[in-house]
Amino acid sequence: MRNFTLSTTIASALLALTSITKAEEITSARIAVPSWDAGAIIAHDIGNILNDRHGIAVSFVDIEGEAIWAQLDSDAGSIDIFPDIWLPNQQHFFDKFVHGEGSVVANTVPYTGEQGFYTQIPGSEVRLSIDDLADPTVVSMFDTDGNGLGEYWPGVEGWHATLFSRVKMHGYGISDKWEEINATNEEFIGILEARKKVGDPTLFYYWSPDALLAKHNPHLASEPEYTEGCQKLVEPKDDAQWMEKSTFSCAYPSSVVHVLFRDEFLGHKEVAAMLSNYTVDTDTLMAAMLAMKQTGLSEAEAAGLLR
């Protein structure tokens, strides 16, 4: 019995040593690049740090939405790091993989963001509320094709924010007065700018910090203040009646935005410390985004302005 205990202890120690050695031999990292500016710039900033300070070869993968979680969780996944995960948008997955299974690790110093419905009304400083969006006169202002429905952009298909936009419209009882603009983030920016040129207003989901808000200065539509319990999302994949069972009858709470990485990176002490403690100053991030838009800097070049 004594020999068995000793053998088990030795075997466990050898297994732990093997795992640490394997992790410390990390020589490459695959970083996801989302379609929004902040996430793309942060991805390249992390890539620069990993390459310049730790000698790790970096590659970039275009991926976003809930698909990232399976890729981070799986040994055969296509990414090792996701640079810009917004909570509470993906709280369900964060709780499962970060707090629950522990296969995904989040940095300890997230930055703060703001999100919600914004309105751009060329030539007007009117600030609308959610109640205003039920007014037929207001709806007609945003009806550019004359079909009787206002148009709004809920976000990109596949984002949890887009699900929240739909739940909000349904919960506020105005989903029958508005129709969605189906577009990627880049496509939507083009639509917004085109509408602004001809004087057409636009209602859309968006977030701060982002250069679009600094450039166009839209107004955040007012909603009832966030209170505990005013927000609940039932995942569509979990229940066919997800819309009816979901609620979001208030403004977004202040968002926290994390970097995510695979748990195997924890074995590489220096890299784990860098990723765990990674943070970004939002004012500096905004300045980098503006420089990218105004001067044509690439995402990688804009990332160089963060340090």
- End-to-end Cα distance: 58 Å
Classify the helix fraction into a percent range. Answer: 40-55%
Roughly how many Å is the radius of gyration?
A: 22 Å
- Helix-strand string: HEHEHEHEEHEHEHEHEEHEEHHH
Shape designation: globular
Question: Strand count, sense and closure of the main sheet?
Answer: 8 strands, mixed
The proportion of residues in beta strands is: 15-25%
* Total of DSSP H or I helical runs spanning 4+ residues: 12
Poorly predicted parts: 1-23
Count of individual beta strands: 12
Q: What structural class should be given to the helix and strand makeup?
A: alpha/beta
> Mean pLDDT score, rounded?
91
What labels describe this entry?
globular; 307 residues; two-stranded parallel sheet; alpha/beta; eight-stranded mixed sheet
What features would you describe in this structure?
The protein is α/β, with parallel strands linked by helices and 307 residues long. It is built from 12 helices and 12 strands. Strands 3, 4, 5, 6, 7, 8, 9 and 12 form an 8-stranded mixed β-sheet that branches. α2 (37-54) packs across α11 (282-295). Mean pLDDT is 91; it is low at 1-23.
Draw up the topology in text.
Blueprint: H1 2-24, E1 28-32, H2 37-54, E2 57-61, H3 67-73, E3 81-87, H4 91-100, E4 104-106, E5 111-120, H5 136-141, E6 150-153, H6 160-171, E7 178-180, H7 185-198, E8 202-208, H8 211-216, E9 219-220, E10 231-232, H9 242-245, E11 247-248, E12 255-262, H10 269-276, H11 282-295, H12 299-303
Parallel strand pairs: 1-2, 6-7, 6-8
Antiparallel strand pairs: 3-12, 4-12, 5-8, 5-9, 5-12, 10-11
Helix pairs in contact: 2-11
